[in-house]
Amino acid sequence: MNVCIAERHLHFRGHSGGETAALVVRVFAPFLLKEGDVSFQFSPGTAGCIVRIEGLPQKLEETTYGADSVQAVELAVRGIDPWLRRLSKSYDIFFDTGDPYFED
After folding, report:
1. Which of 19, 49, 79, 93 has the fewest CB atoms nearer than 10 Å to its CB?
2. Which residue, 6, 47, 24, 32, is CA-closest to 95?
3. What sign does the CA torsion over 77, 78, 83, 85 have?
4. Which residues pair with 64 in a beta bridge?
């Protein structure tokens, strides 16, 4: 049902070292909200967009909502780096090249 429209392939490992493992960030196609989908009031045209991070021990998925499908995707994508920054408190995150995702 959900179609992946964008993904980023990374690697991670715990701060204590060890082997790196694959980490994939996926953005799924936006969807229009229907009555009963959420517990808040919304206007016609309001959309959601799911971002999922796969590969970590815990399941991580977040739905972002926008006034329309473009805004839902925009807000979802904007939220990826802050989410990965929070995860970097527990994990070292790398590009496929081995370069660190965050410079600091």
Report:
1. 19
2. 24
3. positive
4. 49
